[in-house]
Specification:
- The chain is α+β, with helices and mostly antiparallel strands and 425 residues long.
- Helix content is 29%, strand content 28%.
- The protein is built from 12 helices and 22 strands.
- Strand 1, helix 1 and strand 2 form a beta-alpha-beta unit.
- The longest helix has 21 residues.
- The chain binds adenosine monophosphate (AMP) and glycine (GLY).
Length: 425
Amino acid sequence: MKVLIVGGGGREHAIAVSMKKSSRVEKLYCVPGNAGIARIAKCEPSIGVMEFDKIIAYAKEKAVDLVFVAPDDPLVGGLVDELKAAGFRVFGPDKKAAILEGSKAFSKDLMKKYKIPTASYETFDDPDKALAYLETAKMPIVLKADGLALGKGVLICKTLEEAKAGVQEIMLDKHFGDAGNKMVIEEFMTGREVSVLSFVDGKTIKPMTSAQDHKRALDGDQGLNTGGMGTFSPSPFYTAEVDEFCKKYIYQPTVDAMAAEGREFKGVIFFGLMLTPEGPKVLEYNARFGDPETQVVLCRMKNDIMDVVDACIDGCLDQVDLQFEDSAAVCVVLASEGYPVSYEKGFEITGLEKFEGQEDYYCFHAGSKFDSAGRIVTSGGRVLGVTAKGADLKEARKKAYEAVQWVSFENKYMRRDIGKAIDEV
Ligand code: AMP
Ligand code: GLY
């Protein structure tokens, strides 16, 4: 098979590494890709993930057999529908199904209608009504822009003043653009967060191993929200009991609800869960693999990824025995100092060759590119996701923090406490 991956971050690098292992993949392509992905796939850096016509033309030119759409924006924007209309076999939800991530109001209404556990909420498209509602609401409270906002459209407000300023920011100042035309205001929940990615074929859902992300920029979960500074998998807090509850009350009901709404979901659903004192509840849905969750999950999957991808597309996931190694993995993101606000780029990355031939170590590229002299240089806030596997979480963490020393670039920044929570178990 010739396969085209759409996307260009650490997640796509991890997907590409998994696909490369498949005996069924003959050639890999990636748009736009990055300097790490370019080692195993032919990349086309000039094509952006929202340039649908160019992606379709490229897929035709390369005569690919399958297109795998990884990021949220093109999924929500309907790239899967356009590729299918052009005759391609595609992995990923169509536009009608990707609304599960594309509209928080939609996903909250779905959960309410089908009694899937989540925080209680109200939806607003009128800022005055939102402000009036806040006057009697309990603090802290959570404000969410309805649409996609690069993972930044969620505000946790401790006081009424902060919440009012939040409504101003989202709905009036339009900080997140049109994503703020509507807003969800929801109850603040407490507990451990866990991410569960799952394969879905429209009817059957097969959850992968659990993971936990570290969203804040600084140690001790301080600082600004980021795309994710590191992950570990599995989560020791995701017990067999929690798994059983989620399968019964969250995972299958979500898939069934989407089908009942005429929005059959095929692809990956990412469940952002909060393990509250009253039981697991949904924080959010994503309609795709998570980044950097994928980096610690796929490297532990025993199946040939193409078998699972095919089963999702063909509706026979019930026949797949999805299996994960009884190991653990930790991913530490190496970022550019100053991320997520402002940072310099274009610094040479050295030491990457140390990962070659190393069984349990991976250096997934997120923001790297080739400069005019052919050197690999930093090109984004999150630069690399250094990942290691071990027999357990402690070993995986030790190995990941050893491996972060192998690579150097100017302004290299990382959190020192990825996976620290496992010490509490
Ligand atoms: P989301 O993009 O919906 O995952 O929200 C980003 C982050 O905000 C989550 O990972 C949580 O840490 C936090 N968050 C979202 N909703 C709530 C809530 N209802 N209660 C507490 N924290 C929340
Ligand atoms: N790591 C969170 C996400 O991919 O949205």
